[in-house]
Amino acid sequence: MKQTRLVKILAAGVACAAAFGIALAQETTTTTTNPVTGTTTTATTTSTGTIAAYTPDSDYFTFRTSADAAPVRYYYTKDTTILDPEGHTVTWSAIRPDMPATVYYTSVGDRVVVRKVILSQPATIYEKKETTTTTTKP
Questions:
Q1: How far are the Cα atoms of 27, 105, 109 from residue 87, in angstroms, in the given order?
Q2: E-state strands within 22-138
Q3: How far is residue 41's CA from residue 1's CA, in Å, rounded to a whole number?
Q4: d(CA 120, CA 86)
Q5: Which end of the chain has fewer CB atoms within 10 angstroms, the N or the C?
Q6: What is the pLDDT averaged over residues 106-129?
Q7: Smallest Cα–Cα separation from 103: which of 24, 50, 47?
Q8: Phi and psi for 13 in degrees, rounded to 5?
Q9: pTM (2 decimals)?
């Protein structure tokens, strides 16, 4: 009786893990080509991976979808939103290299323009502590 119950629980766990993995791996792309101008427009697409590099003074960051993939430039605008895992808006200073994230973007011409970045782990805030030691002579 106990083994059957354990097998059912494990099977349900495996099924949930598989469904979660499939949901994360899906990407949605809708491409429309204007027959008059010949321009191609791509709707919002999702990509999961790791932020490879970010320079605060630039208009892009590089993003890697897997460890063996080459990093790609993802351009951002003032309307790009960055969210922590709980859904709270954070600033660009929370972005660090090698930070896992999900990026929602649109292709505009030859550029990948980011609409939203959801960080997969909370941003670490470092505090600088200073200590002062005072010695007195008798």
A1: 20, 18, 30
A2: 31-33, 40-42, 45-54, 60-64, 72-83, 99-108, 111-119
A3: 58
A4: 9
A5: C
A6: 78
A7: 47
A8: -65, -45
A9: 0.57
Write out the two tokens for 40.
Answer: 């191609």
How many angstroms separate the CA atoms of 86 and 107, rounded? Answer: 27
**8-21 pLDDT, tens digit each:** 676 655 544 444 44
| Residue 61 clears pLDDT 70, i.e. is over it | yes
Nearest to 74 by CA among 58, 65, 83, 63: 63
Buried b / exposed e over 80-119, threshold 16 CB at 10 Å, is bebbeeeeeebeeebbeeebebebbbebeeeebbbebbbb
Q: How far apart are CA 83 and CA 98, in angstroms?
A: 16
**What pLDDT, on a 0 to 100 scale, did the predictor assign at position 101?**
93
Q: 101 - beta bridge partners?
A: 49, 119
